[in-house]
Fold this sequence. Notes:
single chain; alpha+beta; 4-stranded mixed beta sheet; 3-stranded antiparallel beta sheet
Amino acid sequence: MSDKPNGRIFKPRPVQTSTDRATGREWLNEPLVRVIDELHQPMYLFPRDCPGVLYWPTSTTTPEDCERWWGEQSRRVVARVERTWLDRLRTGILHGYEFLETDFMNLHDAGTWVSHVPVTPIRVETLRDLIGGIARQGVELRVMASLVSLKELSKTSLHVSGLRLRNARD
């Protein structure tokens, strides 16, 4: 997903901040085209720079964590965002790109696939209703004043993904 329409070609881009990689995986800091699989797509249905926390139970989630953070409702993911981003969620537009799977290598890491060479999408879809798109993905959107109170989520047995938290309110 991107907030900029680009139907032509995606070229490998360098990472903004290199990270320490396991031996033999240092190449992940090289310029790559990165895409996400459909299962993990809800993490990218938010406006550029929008901080958020997404979480869901796994096979190792404890009943206590599930009761406290998940509840009884049926949904795939809970997403929490700050109230200051709600207008941008209501008015934002994203463009989703579909690529040939054979053009990418699966990293087996949170749905990430990469390509070392430029790739061309086979389909482009414009999403004009981000909140509706989030709901259609089975995500319950919860709006709050600040994400700071969610720090303890990282100590639970749920899967937790923080997005762009550098932009979260203190």
